[in-house]
Task: structure prediction
Amino acid sequence: MADYGKIPSAAKLQPKPFKAHVDDEKLQAMKTLLKYSPIGPATFENTAEDQGESLVSGRNRKYGMRRDYVTNAKEVWLNEFDWRKHEDHINSFPQYSVPVTDDDGITIDVHFMALFSEKPDAIPIGFFHGWPGSFLEFLELFGILKDKYSPKDLPYHVIAPSLPGYAYSSGPPVDQNYTVDQMCDHMHKLMVGLGFESGYLAQGGDIGSFVGRYLAATYDACKGMHLNAYMVGPPDREDKMNDVDEYEKQVMQRGPAWRETGMAYGIEHATRPGTIGLVLSSSPLALLAWIGEKFLEWTDDDPPLDKILESITLYWLTETFPRCIYPYRVLMSGKRETPYVSKPSGYSLFPKELVPVPKSWAAATANIVSYSQHKKGGHFAAMERPADLLADVEEWVPKAWKGGDGAKL
Result:
């Protein structure tokens, strides 16, 4: 069997192999709670056949999660879904855990999935997920890399961490505030601690896009970023603001629709994280309704139920939700600045991204050297269109690693 688990000899951190596994008792407790979780009563808003299309997804869910979907999902989750098979799939990729301490002395036990190359000139790339995602988003993309390359010819070291508070990483401290910048610092220290002090690249979407931008803007070692979500407003220069092609004009219509009907969850996360964290920790069915809605609304096509249940089961069994929504307090405040990134940057524009922006808007905040438009795909690009996203990353990497603004090593 090919060994993608050889940590670079230059690593200063000492990661320990990690295996995804939950005790039978905890798994059974989840099922018991699920079994006795009642499904709310039928209402016009959760049953009407003609309630109208969601402005976000375009599908018949104008008022949110439908009762028949939850009813069926509960039945499947209880009687057909096999978490052990998903654990086996997770464990088919090298997994690790390692303590990482930031400049403020806060230590996070960071979990990460990785494929390490045996090539001495392999290029390190960190893949950073968002909410309500996790490292699971990159399983298929990493699978494509395993099928395409052996450890001896893999051109990259690819690392997909669980952000602090997510999945198998430990959570932020409970006795002091923890910020997005500190989260990013932990991710930087993970990458350089794995032996990549001379340079690495960053890719991300959703919260991961903020991580990628912060790393590229802040640390010399991060040589460039590739994002599939440029969450930026219109540029100050009118010529840039009007430089929009027909495809971009069409997909940009999603932004106002999402702001009008899809942002309430984020305001709740940002303003009352304590409350919503406790609410959704009381019932796996409640977590399914809250998070499942996002997977259904933010994708181009409804994902398979098994894929949605995989993510929600991981969240429940690792108590992720109440530990992971701290970034919203800053990211939804409107007070966070968008630093310009002069390093070579890539942009993948998928049509069902929540707030798609044209290349010209992205270029006002970054040195865009690689840009792709896609016919299919939504907010969870790595999960929905892994081959497309990987192709974009592979097209961008040589431009970021060997060219432009001092990125050459």
Remarks:
- The two ends are 33 Å apart (CA to CA).
- Residues 386-402 form the longest helix (17 residues).
- The longest strand covers residues 107-115.
- Confidence is low (pLDDT under 50) at residues 403-409.
